[in-house]
Amino acid sequence: MPGTITKRGEMMRQYITRRLIQMIPILIGISILLFFILQLAPGDIFSTMMNPHMTAEMKEELRHQLHLDQPAYIQYFYWVQGVLKGDFGDSFYFKQPVTRVINTYIWNSFLLSLVSFILSVIISIPIGVISATRQYSRFDYFFTVVALIGISIPSFYFGLLLIKWFSVDLKLFPVSGMMTPGVNFVGMEKAADILYHMALPCIVLTLSSVAGLMRYTRSSMLEVIRQDYIKTARAKGLRERVVIYKHALRNAMIPVITIFGMWLPGLFSGAIITESIFNWPGIGPIELLAVNNRDYPLLMGINLILALLTLLGNLIADITYALVDPRIRLK
Amino acid sequence: MEAKSIEDVRELATEDIMSPWKLAWRRLKKNKLAMLGLYILAIMVLLSVVGPLVSPYTMEQMDLSNIQSPPSLAHPMGTDEVGRDVMTRLFYAGRISLSVGLFAVVISVVIGSVLGGIAGYYGGFIDSLIMRIVDIFMSFPFLPLLITIAAVMSDWKVPPQYRMFVVMILIGILSWPGLARIVRGQILSLREQEFMQAAEALGIRDRRKIFRHLLPNTYASIIVSATLDLGSAILTESSLSFLGLGVTPPTPSWGQMVQVARDLYTLQMQPWLWIPPGICIFLTVMAINLFGDGLRDALDPRLKR
């Protein structure tokens, strides 16, 4: 009925608006938490700076400019004021606006995360489905073990093992970086060079997400296969392929979709270690750089962006969930 | 046994009356994978506890005439850059890594179950407040937050021997929200049940109702989730120490011992320095996951195969 559909569409719009409004207090909470955690650090950038050309008066002057001589909560409001205007301050380390630094590196992270995300979806869903339809078969056991290894191995260790075997011993892949230094490839050659550098970090990220996604797909599929409507579909004499891939898979995908939304931002923060092992010029090594150099404006900027991505990911997951499953009540 | 007399029947009945925990243990013992996990875990714990006592070397004993030597009879896993025995350090690192994981989980279980219990029991404003805090914690990317706080704590100049306590408190404080949600969800339905009306009628104090009557009914889920959390806590500690933000030298931890592999020469030429600690992390976490999965199947008969 067209009437119900528009009604649902209207409800959907209200639902999304409400969820967006709900994000505001959470975002404020996160920013307060982050800001005051950094306040717990003793001293500021100037008290640790060893610059012989900088006199105590100059330091005072700079402190005043950056509002560091004000109490913490005043500093917070200055910072929020800037953020609302899109100004996250300047990075101490890069001597550049934080937004520019993030913009330089985040797309490399995005590229790596997206490729490994697509790969893990392509790999894990068919495996999850087959594992469920042939529960307790050799296939199922084999991939249960793979999943177990995937969630149990630390990503840094797996990355180092891959570097040792494939880059150092076999010399099949580059040790680190994103492009071959000193060579200016263009077009397809450049793409191929990036892919070549991306292979190993991609394997590390893909293994860890495949492990989880595969198990979710499997258990969700197992649940659906036992439902009455699947028996009905079989009783109608439909072919097994149609029953599994059309009737069962569509319903089994509903809970898996939620996981997708949570996975996307997780890929960014989960990639921090992997990226830094492979020196992939993404947001991960920059976050560690900011941490090690106590570059607080940059650290705040990156953390806030990551938090925003997480919230958006959860929101997208919930919306998709509501879109594909009409049983969800939008209250 | 076939029942012949009333005594036999009574005997049969008492034989069959088993507490839910005994039943769960019986189910668990049948699960080969879970038991394998338990055995591996027991071996790791045993090696960490007993290893340093039987080793002829101490953790910090240096031998500068015998540095970076490959595995030999005297040093089954070789020596490091100042001639310390790698295997002995591995045992000590096990003590640190396992206890950091364990205490982190204890802290998160205490906070999570108390806050989850309070939120679920009182509902209303208290519930909303606690759950909003949970939302904030959960919508924050875990690793970046951890790295940030760890960096700030490094500036406090905590002496290296106390760093492990900072790390366990930190991981514990950041990982309770998941558990709080689980406990709250269960308490919400438990408090509507009849035994709680009875408790109400008896006029028992709130504290007693929550901690003596409600929370014990959620122990099964708490134990399962705490076991699986132990695996992630050990992984988290190892990542943090690997990045140099967790347990710092001279105190060893498994993750920190892998750190030397960031140097390409060590990575290629001295695998005895970094391969074994990595294997220890992997085996321990895998064993915990196997055991935790088995525990879940055993404690929740609805999921029984």
Radius of gyration of chain B: 24 Å
Q: Note the beta-strand portion of chain A.
A: under 5%
Reported by name, the CATH topology of chain B is MetI-like fold
Order of helices and strands of chain B: HHHHHHHHHHHHHH
Strand content of chain B: under 5%
**How far apart are the termini of chain A?**
21 Å
Number of DSSP strand runs of chain B: 0
What kind of assembly state do the chains in view correspond to?
A: heterodimer
Hey, which two chains have the biggest interface? A-B, 51 and 41 residues
The strand line-up of the biggest sheet of chain A is: 1-2
Low-confidence stretches of chain B: none
Rg on CA atoms of chain A, Å: 25 Å
Could you say which overall geometry of chain A the principal axes of the C-alpha atoms support? globular
Q: How many individual helices of chain A?
A: 12
Compute the average pLDDT of chain A.
Answer: 82
Provide a count of the helices of chain B: 14
Helical percentage of chain B = over 70%
Count of folded domains of chain B = 1
Question: Would you give an account of this structure?
Answer:
By secondary structure, chain A is mainly alpha-helical. Chain A is 77% helix and 1% strand. Chain A has helices at residues 2-39, 45-48, 56-65, 72-84, 98-133, 138-152, 155-169, 187-225, 228-235, 240-277, 283-292, 296-324; strands at residues 90-91, 96-97. The mean pLDDT of chain A is 82. Chain B is mostly helical and 305 residues long. Helices cover 72% and strands 0% of the residues of chain B. Chain B has one domain: MetI-like (MetI-like fold, Orthogonal Bundle), CATH 1.10.3720. The longest helix of chain B is centred in the middle third of the chain and has 37 residues, at 86-122. The radius of gyration of chain B is 24 Å and the shape is globular. Chains A and B meet through α1, α6, α7, α10 and α11 of A and α5, α6, α11, α13 and α14 of B.
Main attributes?
heterodimer, A: 331 residues, mainly alpha, 12 helices, B: 305 residues, MetI-like fold, globular
